[in-house]
Amino acid sequence: MTRVKRSVAARKKRKATLELTKGFRGEAHSNYRRAKEALMKADAYAYRDRRNRKRDFRRLWITRINAAARQNGMSYSRFMHGLALAGVELDRKVLADIAVRDADTFRRFAETAREASAA
Q1: For residues 76 and 65, is the Cβ–Cβ distance under 8 A?
Q2: What is the pTM of this model?
Q3: Phi then psi for 62, rounded to 5 degrees?
Q4: 101-110 long-range contacts, Cβ below 8 Å, gap at least 24?
Q5: Pick the residue with more confidence: 119 or 32?
Q6: In 10 A of CB 9, how many CB atoms?
């Protein structure tokens, strides 16, 4: 079997890892072993937090909708149930944006939800 000399490939791999860890603290940006560990941890956090970001934004939207609904004399759950009965198909992201930017439009949605749940 022929001999494989790894120096070029190994140096390329180490250099790529150190490039990715530029800006990390301590030895994590200069020492290959520490950089590799830090990069694996950073990738795990990034993967986890891409999913958590969706969770966090949904919580924020629900909080904003709840606050606006309570200003209009409804709870969040009654508001959302009324919208579903009325056939309004807006997602929480859009409703939260309307609640923050346009209180008059949100008030009309609240009235629609109230009428639908009363009927």
Answers
A1: yes
A2: 0.82
A3: -65, -40
A4: 103/68, 103/71, 106/68, 106/72, 107/72, 109/79, 109/83, 110/68, 110/69, 110/72, 110/73, 110/74, 110/79
A5: 32
A6: 10
pLDDT exceeds 90 at position 4: no
Q: Which fold has domain 10-118?
A: c-terminal domain of poly(a) binding protein (1.10.1900)
What secondary structure, in 3-state letters, does the chain show?
Answer: CCCCCCHHHHHHHHHHHHHHCCCCCHHHHCCHHHHHHHHHHHHHHHHHHHHHHHHHHHHHHHHHHHHHHHHCCCCHHHHHHHHHHHCCCCCHHHHHHHHHHCHHHHHHHHHHHHHHHHC
**Domain layout of the chain by residue ranges:** 10-118
Distance between CA atoms of 10 and 17, rounded to whole angstroms?
Answer: 11
